[in-house]
Amino acid sequence: MKKNYSGLLILILFVFTSACNKDLSRITATVIDKMMVNKTWYLDYSITGNNTQSFLGQSTYSITYFKDGTTKDSDGLTGTYKIIENNGNYQIQVVANSLKGNALNYTHTIESVGELNMIQSFILTGQASKTSLYFTSK
Amino acid sequence: MIKFIIQRVLYSFIVICILSNTVSAQKLSVKEKDNSFLVHPVKDRIKKIKKSLAKTFKDFTDNDVFLLGSLNLSSQNINDEGITAPVNYLYNSVNNNTFKPGFTGGFRIDGIYKEKHRYTFSFAMNRISSGAHYKNKYTQPPFLEEYTHFKADNIFTTLSLAARYKKLLPINAMNQYKFYAVVGPSLDYKISTTSNDNLLDGAANRLIVNADIGSEFDNNGYYVLFAHYKWGNNLFRSMVPIQLNRFEIGISFKVKDIF
Q1: B191 in A contact zone (CB under 8 Å)
Q2: Given CB atoms, is A138 within the 8 Å cutoff of chain B?
Q3: Mind listing the domains of chain A with CATH numbers?
Q4: Tens digits of per-residue pLDDT, B51-95?
Q5: What ipTM did this prediction achieve?
Q6: Taking CB atoms and an 8 Å cutoff, what residues of chain A touch B207?
Q7: How far apart are CA B228 and CA B73, in angstroms?
């Protein structure tokens, strides 16, 4: 009889604790997406190695991510985006076309994203240092 | 006229039915007599459990059931050092180092163990609205803002169980008004939906274990006024350890005095 009670106790504990075990990467991607979408992000700084470029107070590059998974930037690129998890890093994959119809695909690592600020980074081929892009949504 | 006759017939039928049932309840049919000699596993089991419980809890006497209601003031301390998800929240918009009000409703059983030790068992539902103090601030230069990496849920509902020991304090006329010091553990289980922000890196933890301490004033058994402090922590290890501080100020009434 004691065995039955122990089994019941284990089952209750399992139900209570397993309620939290959701797909963690999917949850993180959902939160990142919620922070990014339906906002226009303006580039404030670009940092490569020790070289910091500021675009504050200037006409700067901007990009908008829409809820339906499409994106549009100030250079006239339009296309789709996807947030993926790659070895613990979260990346944004953009598949876009220029106004002339040339394809341009790129993947940036999302370093940090919030309601107001976002940092993306990438390493260009042949470049030693990574480039970090600091965006602000206004 | 027809309606009146139908009503009368119906009433007569109901009265006859009741009377016949009463009569038949007094006499056991052959089937019922046979049934009484048969084995009833469920009934027997319940009887056995009742007997066993009575035997186990024979030392728990003078039990009174009370309904309780209280006002809570809560604040949580959050340590988000373990978060690796690339998410930031503006520190000043999520941090508010204050106590916020919530409420509790439930019932409790007060009694005496071995005619010497007073105790309280309580079961309650809590609506907690909590202030949040984030221990860590992060910066991302050249941005000037300060951030946290986690946003804890500030409003949630829990079910709680508590077992407390009551010590009678020698204050005032103890035959009429009684003052008690209470101490004991309690357990809260979050039943409200957890937000995705709170689930980052598996940080959410539904079980909170508390250490309770407080005092109670018993007005001749008519009602009990109580003030408790609850010091709560995650029961299981979490990426974001949260410490929940709560003050409870409330009143409880004997159920048999109300109903």
Answers
A1: no
A2: no
A3: 23-137 (2.40.128.540)
A4: 887 777 777 888 889 999 999 999 999 999 888 899 999 999 999
A5: 0.82
A6: 16-17
A7: 11
